Amino acid sequence: MLAITNLTVGYGRTDILRDLSVTFTPGHITGIIGPNGAGKSTLIKALLNLIKPRQGQILLNDTPVKSQLNQIAYVQQRADLDLSFPIDVEHVVLTGVYPQLKLFHEPTPAMHDAVTAAIDQVGLTDFKHRQFSALSGGQLQRVFVARALVQQAQVLILDEPFVGIDLASETQIMAILRELTAAGKTVIIVHHDLNKVTTYFDDLVILNHGVIAAGSTERVFTRSNIGQAFSEDLGKVLFIEEVNNG
């Protein structure tokens, strides 16, 4: 289990997240939602040990996560990528096995087979030798999911994975993530489309510089919690039937 306890983290003298405690359950897809500036990206950076907490701890199976970062696979926002780099699909996915390699060692035949299988799993076999820069948004995102698959990590974190991609790719990625959680993996998705929260996520973390609510989506995705994290007006819009009835 991935567990965060009493986490405070920020930049300079400013705390972005204060006294945050939350756990992520293996076998579940957990969504992280919150307004812009709420600390979603900061939380991901803390999980990846890219910024150091002022206080608190992050444990994976009761061991500090910073000592086992190879057990976390990360799919970053597409907007953060340099799409001009001259590399094809196969070699992008192959970079997912590099953390498993010893110094000066080449990928093994088994690793190459795993890359081929991952590319097939995301439906891009015909694009195996296609240049990275020539792919559509949905194809790019599936490539990065394939790279995460070959890492064979316990935890998969995706940061806004569905922004600007086609519905077919989004549906396929969600199906793959469901397969991973069925195998006991922990999947965490930073997400912005509140209309899909109940469809996509088993659990939900609602942030605004701390945890507004966390737990099963059915329990925490409420008008009150959304109103507290975002705005009362947004809560009314999302839960209009509840407003009309009550």
From TrEMBL:
Pfam families: ABC_tran. Keywords: ATP-binding, Nucleotide-binding, Transport. One of its GO terms (molecular function) is ATP binding. Belongs to the ABC transporter superfamily. InterPro entries: AAA+_ATPase, ABC_transporter-like_ATP-bd, ABC_transporter-like_CS, Metal_Ion_Import_ABC, P-loop_NTPase. It comes from Lacticaseibacillus brantae DSM 23927. This is ABC transporter family protein. Residues 2-234 form the ABC transporter domain.
